[in-house]
Amino acid sequence: MIHLKVLTPKPPQYFKPGIGKIWPVAVLIGMLGLQSVKAQNTQPFGGTVGKTLNDSKEWWPEPHKAPAGAPNVLWIILDDVGFGATSTFGGIIKTPNFDTLANNGLRYTNFHTAGICAPTRSALLTGRNHHYVHEGGFSHIALSAGFPGYDGRIPSDKGTVAEILRENGYNTFAVGKYGLTPDEDATDAGPFDRWPTGKGFDHFFGFLGSATDQYKPDLVEDNAHVTPDGRHLNEQITDKAIFYITRQHKAAPDKPFFLYYAPGATHSPHQVAKEWSDLYKGQFDSGWDDFREKVIARQKKLGIIPAYAKLPERNTRIPAWKSLPPAEQKLYARFMEVYAGYLTYTDHEVGRLINYLKQSGQLDNTLVFVIIGDNGASKEGTLHGEINPKKNSAKLLAEAPYLKTNIEDIDDIGTPQASTNYPLGWAQAANTPFKYWKQDANSEGGTRNPLIVYYPKGIKDKGTIRTQYGHVIDVLPTTLEYTGIKLPEYIRGIKQDTLQGTSLVYSFDHPEAANRHKLQHYYIFGSRSIYSDGWKAEAAHHPDYVELNDFTVGKNVPDISFDDDVWELYNLNDDFNERIDLAKKYPEKLKELKAVFEEQAQKNNLYPFIDWYDVYHRRIHQNYKK
């Protein structure tokens, strides 16, 4: 048998195999063909096999082709952006590129996420509820558990949008945050079946975790870690996205692409060049109370929210801005200047991508979805904000507040050497006009995020608003219906489960169309809710928990039974931002909705309920003590 010597290329920094190996030719050919075989559906042989070639008929499977005229598809999802942050949906922070897309497309103002990053992303990519695809928490060891709803491993019978579109003739690319790879699989040794390339993406450039430093990211390309080049991650992923599309378009100009563009922004650490944060110098000196008043007025003027809307009361844990001493006002204003610059810079990088598509003649045939946030604004920056959390860990253990340290470190906010996150007051402001924030799956403040749909060739009613109820599980079926693609019965030989989302195409040309997505449950870390045709029942769990420094380090979070959680009832048709609790007025309606929630919980793997705050809090304490 002939042997070939296969030289191993220079290994990545985390993987050091031998210099070379000797492989039999047959084995080598098999290895080279493995990827293409795995990427194809099994098709029954259509020829004839006789005893000789003369009495046999050759047959080759038809190559996968997209439907004639199928558009490119671009999904953009930002991280930790509140409903009221962007200028596109009434906010003060300038997002001119999102404005342009929305002014030439559709604004969806009643669209929802799961309430936290990995659950939202798993639901988005699969078109199925996050517990149903095993992402009830995260894929991280600290926040996963050995139960069907929580093990953090998306089953193969619940294929992703990338797998579906690749099976239908698309090239598929992903850049930025993935967040769905189990920690134990996230080394250069794999296994790689739960990396993006194992879930249908031809190429991936970004990070596998939930968050990363924007200048020193834990960076991956395809199936190996790579060394970042020192530039901001947003710039790197945009360049890579343009590279992937350019290369593909040159080789196969008639073949459509799917791009999943998921920057780590605006998740902490909030890091951005001063040229961006200084755009907002002095603009937040009037504070978070004034911010909320200005934003709700702008939202009404734009028709984003009902004219009758009123602001919920300021959360009791957040002080009135005018009550703060000047040093604190200066500190907190700088936090928001940096965040605003970070968001505007992210919009700029999206604009670079859109401009490339326009200049290369591809934008008119590209269906674009922009989800502004995978959950509401983040409460994870604590009451005073974070600049250098590690520096403050000793003070936390001594039960000392670190406000004084933050004031001393004000010039570090937003810089590469800091790990910045803004304080709670700005989280509530960015979520205007809703209550609560990220992680609170009971509340619209945790789960309502803006959606833009843009398609020059297909959107007729440009610049208009849609109020139909939607959820991230709807984006995949919407994409399939609009592109004329059906969910494959099999992907790589595995029979596929049904989708759970509802296509939004019915609303594209019909702003007054009745809702078709009538039922949706939510559950994150014990907080839960059920939406049913305009009514919503909800229960908070640990409603006053903000982050680590809310409880004395070294002690457990208070033990609160799920049975003690208080359920509330709202009619969102008349009270869209949950100001009037009707639980006592309509107890039978609340009972009915709780029964519906129970049905959904059983169907979608929500049990067992796990008090993740307690689990996570204890693990964090252990790490701090080490």
TrEMBL record:
Q: Which UniProt keywords apply?
A: Calcium, Hydrolase, Metal-binding
Sorted alphabetically, which Gene3D superfamilies does this protein's record hold? 3.30.1120.10, Alkaline Phosphatase, subunit A
- Which GO molecular-function terms appear in the entry? arylsulfatase activity
Q: Point out the coiled-coil segments of this chain.
A: none
Q: Any keyword Metal-binding?
A: yes
- Which enzyme class, named as a word? hydrolase
Which EC number(s) does UniProt give?
3.1.6.1
Which InterPro entries has this protein been placed in? Alkaline_phosphatase_core_sf, Sulfatase, Sulfatase_CS, Sulfatase_N
Where in the numbering of this chain does the Sulfatase N-terminal domain appear? 71-485
Q: Name one Pfam family in it.
A: Sulfatase
Write out the similarity annotation: Belongs to the sulfatase family.
Protein name, please? Arylsulfatase
